[in-house]
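User: Sequence in, structure out. Go.
Assistant: Echoing your sequence, followed by the structure tokens.
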Amino acid sequence: MLLNACSLFGSSQSTIPAEFAQADYLLSDANAKTWAVASKQAEQCIYPNLTRIQQQHFAKEDSYIHSQYVFFYPLEKIIALDPDLVIAPDYTSADVIAGLRHMGIPTVVVPTGTTVESVIKNVTDIAHIVGEDEKGQFYEQKIRRELETMKRLGTSIPLNQRKSVLFVSSMDGYTGTGSLLEDMCKYMSIYNAPDLLGLPPRTPFGDERVLAMDPDYIFIPSYKGMDKNLASRYLDNPAFQNLPAIKEHRVKPLPAAYLYTMNQHIGEAMLAIMYTVYP
């Protein structure tokens, strides 16, 4: 079974014969989203104002409650599907992984891609795991061609004319220094504004820091439309009204998938961003 909300091999996919597990069940986008929604609803019911910092400093009792009711409750629905194989990213809760393995379900944890090269490796590795080596090679070659296109386009952009970009995310600091987005920027011939300013990894983008960055472009994630709260924070904030990016209408919607494109579509996402910055 693949947790397939971010499908590696397309939105419509038939059963994949795993090389060693012969998996014959694929968790659909709808079921994966149902699992995620059930988990989120349980969390909001028990911890309506939970922050990431609070969760990191949970007491033992809270850790137990959170794991039992937020993770294991929806996990039971996954176990009920009796999958032959589960492939999970390394940011999946250790409780979920332990629960799956405790039930005797083969579970492969893949590392989170933090560079373009590591994303390519994940694509080929996962393709191999599920017995689809040819598709893995196909997508690697496709990404390599897209990287070559970016390299060719970048040679026509002088260093002093390259643009700085602030990628906004609901997860503060996610797109900052040391992120996958920063590595992507190197291929796109653009500067990642937090890194250009010298901010440490995972640094929140407060008003003063945004003003100091003064990015040429600001990209707001779009989920069937620009995220209203994030857009308002930049477009309606009096502190930002003199930023050239605001005054010159260079605050752009960016499909949210591009922010989290740790899959075979990474080359497409980078080209789309590059064409937006350098029309």
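User: And one key feature?
Assistant: Residues 4-27 have pLDDT under 50 and may be disordered.
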